[in-house]
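Form 7-S
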Amino acid sequence: MSRFRHQASRRRPFLSAAVVTVLGAGLFLAGGLGLAPWPASQEDPATARVTGSEGAAPEADPLSRDIAALQTRLRRTPRDAEALGALGLDYVQRAKTTGDPTYYPKAEAVLKRSLALDEADNYTAMGGMAALEAARHEFTPALEWARKAIDVNPFNSTLYGTLADACTQLGRYTEAADAVQKMVDLKPGTPSLARASYSAELRGDTRTALAEMRRALRSAGSADERSFAHYHISEITLNDGRPADALAQADAGLRAAPSDAPLLQIKARAQAALGRNEGAVTNLAEAARRLPLPEYVLQLGELHESLGHRRKAAQQYRIFRAEQKLFADNGVSLDTDAVLFEADHGKPDKALTIARQALADRPFLDSHDALAWALHLNGQHRAALAESDQALALGTRNALFHYHRAMIEKALGNRSAARSGLTRALAINPHFHPLHAPRARQALTALKNGTASQETRGRQ
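Output:
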């Protein structure tokens, strides 16, 4: 993470479509983080039967098969630390691919059992704890666990990816870039090239970001990796204001993976930018049905609101609130989605409280921007401007960030800076948000008209 809201800051590498790599004996997939309206099994997490998204028979996907095989192995050898570590990793991924955060406590229980059996050399469980803490937005412990795992096995590329993710979210961008380079050196492929792409995008270098993702597509060794690469190429081009190119990439990915929810989501965003609203609503609703991530639900609500469907929008916002509660109940810290939701659709004072804690936990660009917006909506414009400076410190081409800054400048009476910021936001991506992009155009028109009126009065 990452959305209509966080377009240029998309791709926290543990969001969206799955990328499969190997960490010890277990699967480590960079997948979507979300929520589903069902509880995980309350049985022993090491041996509980794996069920599909509706509690039916086990699914035939590789992750389900891997979990089932590990559970069978653990029934025979319950003190198998390696199998427990691998199973914990799989449970983290299960939470992501199903959107069910109740798998996180199960993952933690299994990983801690693994570490209790082998604390010294168990890099699989250490890497699993790093992945788990990152998924729960606890990036300081994620960083600590990643470093412990690398101390044991400094030649595992995936561990450097986890380290890079944690460093990025903690605002340690130089350390993150070093970890990404190490990952690429050890194993150039889709996971490492995707992180290299993201590192370039954060610096505002979208040309390099796109080139790296195209390399990732060429090196993709599985359908999951290809769909992942198509998704992010689509998102980069969409964030860069090229919705037709984004739509073509999404369609290319869907031809190979027609059931891929992230590709449906990015297709919907591209369709909305092109004014194809009926298709956008249909595809975004289907993406949320297949993978009920909070971000998808929020996007659908905001798209409905932009089209005047207020009752449908309100329904999605209620679902979003319920999802946020379920996440919090399962150990996931509230993040910028919750901040911006409260700021734009709920209670600004609550947004500010969440934003301050989010920044303390995760001093990333998104967190600075969200705090800036929450401060602005609470009338603290000077403090908001300072946070906006931090959000844009790397030169990231993020239209939403520039819009937020422009509106803060406007509130401070800095009309020239506000005009410049709004112009910049709309130049980066004229369709950056279904609600805020029209407001940006309206504000820019009003500022230009106001300037013209002042100039006319000055000549009289």
